[in-house]
Structure formats: C-alpha cells, structure tokens
Amino acid sequence: MHKPSTADGNFVEPTLTPVLPEPVGPAPLSVSGHDDLSFFDRVKKHIGNRTAMTEFLKLINLYNLELITKDVLIYKANQFMGGNPDLLGMLRAMFEHSGEEEVIENRPEPPTGKVSLSNCRGLGPSYRLLPKRVNLPPFLPPPFFPLQR
After folding, report:
1. How many CA atoms does the CB half-sphere of 112 hold within 13 Å?
2. How confident is the model at residue 35 (pLDDT cuts 50, 70, 90)?
3. CATH number at residue 62
4. Residue 83, by phi and psi: left (phi above 0), alpha (psi -120 to 50) or beta?
C-alpha cells in the first residue's frame, strides 16, 4: 500500500460525505437610474388605468424575455402611450431604438406563367383539371426499337 508522505504538504483525506453549501446572500438590487424611474412614473400617470399599466409592464417583460423584438415593443408601447411623443422618445432612448422603421411594400409577385395546381379543380385523388388556356405538348409515342435477332 502506498502512503502519502507528509513532505508533500497538507494531506486531505477524501470523504464521500458532501460538503454542505454555504448560504448565498441576497443579490444586490440593481436600482435603475432616476430617469428610468421617472419614466415609469410618467407612464403610470399618463395611462391612469391600473389594468392598462399592468399590460404595459407585461409588454416590457415580453421584450426582456426576448419573446418580442424591439420594433414590436415600441409599436405596441405607442398604443399604450396614446402617441405621446415625449414618452415615446424616452422609451426609445431607454431601449436604444434608432427609430428607423423597415418599410415593407405589400405587392403581389408578378405572374410566372405557370399554373398553380392548388387552384385547379380536382378530378379524383391525383388528377387536376387544367384551365383551357394551358397548351400541353402533343402526346409522343414511345420510340420504336426493332427486335434484335
């Protein structure tokens, strides 16, 4: 059997009993700046309705949980603030929103000339009735191969 030498330093005998964890103290409260607190006070006064204010705070929580984007947050918050430009500007500054909105033009794509079979009437489980304007190539018989002898 091998015995540890005392010259190696302090010898700690291993044990199978786990060490009890030390209790962790409360996390320090990260107090927001005075501007943030005054913003929420101003919003509370502007909204004036406890239920609507709770919904506004839920909206901010959805953003913090990364369930909605910053653009959606600003858009929805604008509905709670009634278009108040001062409050909306403070909210954009708080969340570092540039204010640039992406413009999406909702235009249909030009027709490709191909028939969408999902728009054609079904004839049985696997056939579709094509519109009369569709020109199909004529049926070509299979090529003739002479028998070899």
Report:
1. 4
2. low
3. 1.20.1160.11
4. left
CA neighbor of 95 nearest in space, from 66, 118, 120: 66
| Domain total in the chain | 1
Alpha carbons within 13 A on the beta-carbon side of 115: 13
Q: At a CB cut-off of 8 Å and minimum separation 6, what does 21 contact?
A: none
pLDDT tens, residue by residue, 42-89: 888 888 888 888 888 888 888 888 888 888 888 888 887 777 788 888
**Residue 88, in any domain of the structure:** yes
**Token reading at 70:** 């910053």
Inter-residue contact 119 to 103 (CB < 8 Å): no
Burial class (CB in 10 A: 0-12, 13-18, 19+), 46: middle
pLDDT in tens, 91-100: 887 777 676 6
Owning domain of residue 53: 34-94
- 122: β partners: 128
